[in-house]
Amino acid sequence: MKRLYKFAVIFVASVILGFAFNMFLLPHEVLTGGVTGLAMIFGLVTPINSGIWLVILNIPILIVGWMKLGREFIGNSVFSVLVTSLTMQYTPVMKVTEDALLSSVFGGVIAGVAIGFIIRFYGSTGGFDVVGLLLTQKRDIPLGGLIFGLNSIVVFISGFIFSWELALYTMASIYITGIVIDRVHTRHIKLNLMVVTNRGDELKNELIKNLIRGITVMDGHGGYSNEERKVLYTVITRYELAIVKSLIKRVDQTAFVSVSETVEVIGNFRR
Q1: Model-level pTM greater than 0.70?
Q2: CA distance 141 to 134
Q3: Nearest-angstrom CA–CA distance, 77 and 126
Q4: Cα dist. 258→83, 214, 255 in Å?
Q5: In CATH, what number does 190-261 get?
Q6: Measured between alpha carbons, how far is 243 from 211 in angstroms, rounded to an integer?
Q7: Among 194, 190, 38, 25, which residue's Cα sits nearest to residue 100?
Q8: DSSP label at 87?
Q9: pLDDT of amino acid 60
Q10: How many CB atoms lie within 10 A of CB 223?
Q11: Residue 213 scores a pLDDT above 90
Q12: Cβ neighbours, 10 Å, residue 194
């Protein structure tokens, strides 16, 4: 049921994302960032629908991501891309308002909410999100700045193909989308995870198998209950929080879990 709920949220958010593209951004030739923005450009300059381009451009990226990132994450991302593509195929491209700036603002807000929930439930919209995650595993580059830089390429391309006025609208839409995503789901923030459980070995093995992270195991003694417990401590990324919560609930529903934001991590941390 939890997995079905996760897919349902990703499905609804992906439909809303496709709706935002076709009803607010594409009619005014206002694009979004990343591979989705490139798909929108190709859809505007060729007879092939942007939804089809979205799948074509994401195929090689998702194949590499499947080999380098978690299977569940890439599986959810593929599902999101396909739903968004189908929505763009069957939703008519029509203007909700004649005001391009208003469409940029509301399109950016709606897209940001949709993408935020997709990421929150351990997925992505493919494209530069996956590219950024792959690059941060090799270089110590801030993910947000990296994705913004990649998205800026799309803005400059749209400026040369269409007009610089539309490119500025695109930049405004991308900026608004980024702000809203951060409100729904802060991107790639590192978190302290502490779990107090009476099934320490089983939970430790499950976390290591699914996260490939080091875990510190300590002996705990209940001050009130006087019972022995295991205390597990590790640092994870915000992207991993959804799957971690699911694993902990499956192994030990009575576990005490504390999650807090990490200011800085020094040492061996797998990005």
Answers
A1: no
A2: 11
A3: 6
A4: 35, 17, 10
A5: 3.30.70.120
A6: 9
A7: 25
A8: H
A9: 83
A10: 6
A11: no
A12: 15
